[in-house]
Amino acid sequence: MRLSSYDLLPYTLQFESPIQLGTEEITERHGLLLRFEAESGEIGWGDCAPLPGFSRESLSEARTALNTLAASFAEHSLDPRLFVDPAGPVYRALDAATPPPSVRYALDLALWSMGAEVLERTLAQGLHPEPAVALPLSGLLQGDKKAILADAKRMGRASYRAVKLKVGRGKLKDEIALVHDVRNKIGAGVELRLDANRAWSIEDATTFAKGVRDAQVAYVEEPLQDPTGLPMLWMDTGLPIALDETLSLPQGEAFIRGWVSAIILKPTIIGGIVRTLQLAAKGRTVGARPILSSSYESGVGLRGLVALAAATDAEPAGLDTARRFTSDVLKTSLVFDGPFVDVPALLSQKVELAADIS
Q1: CA–CA gap between residue 188 and residue 77 (Å, rounded)
Q2: CA–CA separation, 130 vs 53, rounded Å?
């Protein structure tokens, strides 16, 4: 099979309200769709969207790298079965090229989705012989206290298995109180995940850990400004800890040890589908749960995350970012407004772009 052509399609998506990413506030999301087409008509779609404040590469740098690598693939005849083989020559070649993480995700997704189509599988089936059919979702609690508690109550009643709350943005005593309030709203049966985005010193994190000890917290993502202190924080407080930003460091994989409760896998940030599968496997060896999570990708990128989550232990996935956009690149936007998503139904739909993208 020869890849006859490729296209890079820029897009801009508007947020319904500004999004806080670290110290930066953004009102729109910029990215590139990658479209591969084979001579026999199969099409593969990828999404390249470096996340401001978190990705090392800019969108301009990503576009240059993506254009070069996509052009090189269009010059070869390749067996489509190679596109669903993470240990095969196609992905070894990409490993050797060391593209930026967001570029690698776009390439992996486009090639993998094309390979799955040729083999008459969904993307999830290309990743795992028996992927989850009903994928649980993790609700995202955002906004002011009133909005957070209203959403927490709604999600608890809707039987979400997990919800996520951002912390590390206000006074410790207020955030500790909010965690307990959210726990009361969602009920005892819903997993409560927290994300601190490296907000605290060891002293503040210790105070927080003691304050939420009775709130049945599943884990706190990246509580420390300096990740080297995470093992000691865990030993001193017993706080369940998840790795997120640390995984994107050159030495990040070395942190995946027995004290880690979960690893938050964001293919746009950590470097694609194959890298995600590798880290998920490493996490399982030490008892750390692999949790797929969005980096505010478009609907094309989210399709890939659904497939990965369905093929990777089917833990409640962090895809609730989709409802923050006012529109999408897809003609029919993906909807993640309930506690589960029907994986086969979602992935069986062909990619059709919105009129202003195509």
Answers
A1: 55
A2: 36
How many Cα atoms sit within 13 Å of 291 on the Cβ side? Answer: 32
Sign for the CA dihedral angle at 94, 60, 251, 168 comes to negative
Q: Is 139 helix (H, G, I), strand (E, B) or coil?
A: strand
Among 164, 143, 187, residue whose Cα is nearest residue 324: 143
CB 160 within 8 A of CB 190: yes
CB of 44 closer than 8 Å to CB of 90: no
Confidence tier at 178 by pLDDT (50, 70, 90): very high
Residue 261 — φ and ψ, nearest 5°? -85, -35
Considering the entire predicted model, what is its pTM?
A: 0.95
Question: Which amino acid, 342?
Answer: D
**Dihedral sign from CA coordinates of 98, 79, 72, 12:** negative
At residue 294, φ and ψ (nearest 5 deg) are: -80, 155
Q: Are 271 and 105 in contact (CB under 8 A)?
A: yes
3-state secondary structure of 295: coil
3-state SS track over 148-164? HHHHHHHHHHCCCCEEE
Please tell me the distance from the alpha carbon of residue 230 to that of residue 270, in angstroms, as a whole number. Answer: 20
* Distance of alpha carbon 255 from the chain centroid: 19
Classify residue 278 as exposed, middle or buried by CB count within 10 Å of its CB (0-12, 13-18, 19+). Answer: middle
Contact 302, 332 (CB under 8 A): no
Nearest to 34 by CA among 72, 2, 5, 4: 5
Percent of the chain with pLDDT over 90: 82
Beta bridge partners of 263: 243, 290
pLDDT for 358 beyond 70 = no
Which tokens belong to 299? 């609907």
Task: Write down the pLDDT at residue 355.
Answer: 84
Cα–Cα dist 150/130, whole Å: 37
Residue 148 near residue 165, CB atoms below 8 Å: yes
pLDDT over threshold 70, residue 43 = yes
Query: Bridge partners of 200?
Result: 224
